[in-house]
Amino acid sequence: MANNVNVKKLEADLWESADLLRAGSKLTSNQYCMPVLGLIFLRYAYSRFKLVEQEILKDRPVRGGRVLPVEQSDFAEKSALFLPKEAQYNYLVNLPANIPEQGLTGIEGNPLNSLGEVVNNAMELVEQQSEQLQGVLPKDYTIFSDELLGELLRIFNNDALDDVGGDVIGRIYEYFLNKFAKNVAQDDGVFFTPKSLVKMIVNVLEPAHGVLLDPACGSGGMFVQTGDFVNHAGMIANNTMTFYGQEKVEYNAKLCLMNMAVHGLTGVIKSGDEANTFYHDAHNLNGCCDYVMANPPFNVDKVKSESAQSAGRLPFGLPGVNKAKEIGNANYLWVSYFYSYLNEHGRAGFVMASSATDSQGKDKDIREKLIQTGHVDVMMSVGNNFFYTKSLPCSLWFLDKGKPEHLLDTVLFIDARNYYTVVDRTQNEWSDWQLKNLNAIVWLYRGEVDKYKVLLAEYHAELADDRPFAEIQAALEQNVQAKREEAKAAVEAAPRKERKTTQEKFDKELEALNEKLTVAKEAVWLTEKFGEGAYQDIPGLCKVASRDTILNEKGASLTPGAYVGVAPVEDDGVDFAQRMKEIHKELLELQAESNRLMETISKNLEEMGV
Predict the structure, then answer these.
(1) Per the CB 3.0–4.6 Å rule, which of 146, 161, 297, 533 could disulfide with 449?
(2) Whole-angstrom Cα distance, residue 415 to residue 405?
(3) For residues 473 and 521, is the Cβ–Cβ distance under 8 A?
(4) pLDDT score of 187
(5) Architecture of domain 185-447
(6) How far is CA 139 from the centre of its chain?
(7) What per-residue confidence (pLDDT) applies to 464?
């Protein structure tokens, strides 16, 4: 099974190859996105087909000395997609260059005169095998020249993609979706919710079985992450979960269905006007959902209030309506819908504009009623730059109609705006360990200390060290410093031709040490605050507040920053006045050195006659 480093390299290499081809053509990212994702899907379908075919052939009966050929019904029994020969990836990638001379015909007996037509035909053949995929797969491959399409097919004909069990192709698909989201910025990137936020929502809700609805499902990240979570818990997502989605933009709904298929998930996704959640409960799921997860479009205006009211799902009444009978900001329509969809023990987790946590007017009235139910579970602030096309902060809301009695009167507030990993200048995320640490705060609030203990054991296992985490961190910091000094000496001592390879060798060793050090720091971050597993309010990070405090002291605000306060500034033991003197002295020395160098350079130039 491919390891994480290999998969990351594979992702980057495949994207670079595919994007170079796009740059060499006259196609935009928008034109290129769906067909390329379609090829990744086809490659996945072929990998899975070969895997299931091997399973079938193990117990295949023999007639007249020959093994019976596999049939479509054999694959249906194993919930897998059957691929006719003309839709199999190896057939397409090995076609001769002169397509018109091959005498190929399509489904309806029509001649196929280009590789684009052959791939279009393959997509139609795949759609015939799956009701869920009908009308979904791209069939515009004739926009490519045969040479370009042939090269794309070869790029994804990589043996590493056959690691279906490790869901490598699922990761590649998501990686490409992410990259296209940045390049295309389709509808401001609404079709792709950053994985950090999706994972956080799924981890807090802990889906296990029942009905999951995403009424603004985009490219289906909530379904995919839920599938991963459930499968990781030892269950089979398609057996324990039922997935429903609504997505107004058909393009995004197709991305979603392909994404689910690539991850082996089935679901019912509705798109178009009937799937406009403001006016339609397309699956008739009001009051029926075990889980609701969503990243809806924020701050939508001009929603027709009468249509929204007649569609129901408004347990707390309408938000503010203007003279034109329009809702000027639909954030609280979404909040109301999410709550209304839940059954008596349902949980909801969703992304929302930061401004919604303390907006006024009718929004405040709705928020007060929601708080009074006791079903607001956790509120989490998220910092800037988590989205690919927006730099604004947001909030994660968690509702739970099945909250235990002892927690009904409280809400956990977490301010995570200053806790993240920088990916690059425009993007932040939570690492897997940071996600676990934030999740651990929720576990301790809920009294689930056993899960916290398991996490501590995970840290020790990852670090392969049973000492206290602070000791491990200190030892690793010393190791890193020693390795740096060793690297510097080794590079200086190496012959000139070998210096680059020597540096690269030490860079790899340092990278591995620093990764371990990062894990140790996260373990220290967690245990310094909560020890062996006792929840406590941490200034600047988390606070448990009662409904009375929220409603009467804080004006029904659900903004975490209003409760957690500011983290105390740590005294680093440095005397400021003394340090300024030292800096001033260092500056004077640097200036003197600079002057000496300038004099030397001037003399050298004079000697050279310049």
Answers:
(1) 533
(2) 25
(3) yes
(4) 41
(5) 3-Layer(aba) Sandwich (3.40)
(6) 27
(7) 96
